[in-house]
Description:
single chain; 129 residues; mainly alpha
Amino acid sequence: MSCIFIRFAVNLFNGIFTSGVKNFSDVFRWITYINPLYLVNVPLALTQAHCFEAGEGASEEERIAAGCPTIEVLRDGVARVETVEGYIEDFVDAKYGDRWKFYLAILGVAFFFQICAQLLGTFVNYQRR
């Protein structure tokens, strides 16, 4: 049930029924990368799916042995068991350690728009006319 919620959270604003960023063509991939909601959804999904029992950088077999939540995945016509963390990392094409890159990008986007709003409010103020 939690895997369905995580996939829904990842796809909520990035497009329903998409197959992950790495499957997009290079021409349309930039649309996903410039969307600020993508910067929010990826670290959210990575943090929710992370298994703290296995530790950071553990392999898929170590995660399963540590008792991390698993799901059945159909890949290339073969059903196999994967951890939720491994599935999410493969789906969004990012690792749990990459979440800080996304957090810094979110702060950068917020800072950029704050500076733009300040400059527009100072120099393009039509209320004075």
